[in-house]
Amino acid sequence: MKTNPSAQRRNASAQPSWAATGARHLWLPYNQHKLAPAPLPVVGAKDCRIHLADGRELVDGIANWWTACHGHAHPKLVEAVQKQAAALPHVMFGGLMHEPAALLAEKLTAIAPEGLNRVFFADSGSVAVETAMKMAVQYWVNKGKVNKKKIIAFRHGYHGDTMGCMSVCDPDDGMHTTFSGYVPMQFHIDIPSDEYGFSEFDDLLSHIAPSAAAIIIEPLVQGAGGMIFHSADTLAEIHRITQKHELLLIADEIATGFGRTGSMFACNEAGITPDIMCVGKALTGGMLTLAATLATDKVFDGFLSELPGRALMQGPTYMANPIACAAALASLELFESEPRIQQVQTIEQHLWQLLSPLRNVENVKDVRVKGAIGVVELDACAVDAWDMRIRAAEMGAWLRPFGHIIYLMPPFTMPESDIAFLADVIGKLLQR
Ligand SMILES: *Cc1c(COP(=O)(O)O)cnc(C)c1O
Fold it and tell me: Measured between alpha carbons, how far is 9 from 2 in angstroms, rounded to an integer?
């Protein structure tokens, strides 16, 4: 079973006819179609491997865009999806409800930081973040505070690709430049650290809080904005100071949630309960798109009124899709029946051992590890992310370096031999 993927040979004639059809008609994500190589046609994915149409297998180093925490197509998840598809594949949520959503909401509130008792389902992470921002703004409007409409966001943050989400992403990234004047203006500040301390952060909040509804943060790990970490103490202090200022705290756990940082949620490590929390990505174990925005009773109660207009004005058509909810329930059961969090802690040790030696390699600026996240940061102009992706695939690894970051975010079920293989591939990528 453990054949070395790099030893496999490509069979070019095996490219399916639909690969050419797709090349003519598909518009791919973040893809410069004039320059980029064609995407790799996939015919299957199982455990930690992606099966390509040409017969090769790639070891998935990024867990299906950070979703497949149990590996691809875990039999328990496949079974849950098949059963639910046969029973009730979908029913609209406006005025109706169903068992998988009810049980999933109960389960999420039970495992989430204490006090997040309400769950609003959405169909993608970006929509969950949009929902969180609307919740925060409308919460204050419902209280008669109509000037608190801005969101405070941290530099190097990433919260999704829709308009509201883009507005709280890092202000210097490409999306802001392209869409400047179109995305809403927000406050962008630095995460407090040694140079820019908590008292400055506190002072700044005193000035901007009267026109802001909330502060949004990716707890412990800023993901797509650069894989930058901060400590649980920093997170706890941000939470404490935020509470002093009529502001809600939105924790975007879409990347960190469900064990990725070594605890079920990153907020747990700081012992905090945010007012609002977004989850997505690994919620269904990589099976289907589903996300959720959780809120405390304080936030939910802010919408209770005799006035219908004070209701939360949000309702994605496919929200709480029963098949996706069933997959999420099965995924959370796997966290109970299998030692997932322990596996993350073991992976953390392996990543440290395997990636640390790369610190001494030319052009490597930093190596850092948190839970099942291993990051190799390079000097700014040392990387051609496209070229690295292609070379990694040639060697049998599926990686997606971006900017000057190469990272691993493997499925939690990945055996040590595969992690060692991926670390070896990264080492080879750096040799040039
Ligand atoms: C991926 C991500 C999102 C967006 O989720 P989508 O499902 O892609 O819309 C939002 N926030 C964070 C932190 C993410 O990593």
Answer: 15
pLDDT digits (tens, 9 = 90+) for 150-199: 999 999 999 999 999 999 999 987 677 888 889 999 999 999 987 789 99
Task: Give the closest residue (by CA) to ligand 1 atom 5.
Answer: 125
Residues near ligand 1 (Cβ within 6 A) = 124-126, 129, 158-160, 218, 223-224, 252, 254-255, 280-281
**What is the average pLDDT score of the chain?**
95
139 classed as catalytic: no
Active site residue 158: yes
Instruction: Answer for the pair 104, 329: CB distance below 8 angstroms, yes or no.
Output: yes
- Closest Cα to residue 406, out of 371, 358, 357? 358
Q: Whose CA is nearest to atom 8 of ligand 1?
A: 125
* 164, amino acid identity: G
* Arithmetic mean of pLDDT, 16-38: 93
**Separation of 94 CA from ligand 1 center, angstroms?**
25
Atom of ligand 1 nearest to the CA of 291: 7
pLDDT attached to residue 135: 98
Q: Find all residues with CB under 8 Å of 395, minimum gap 6, and list them.
A: 5, 6, 425, 428
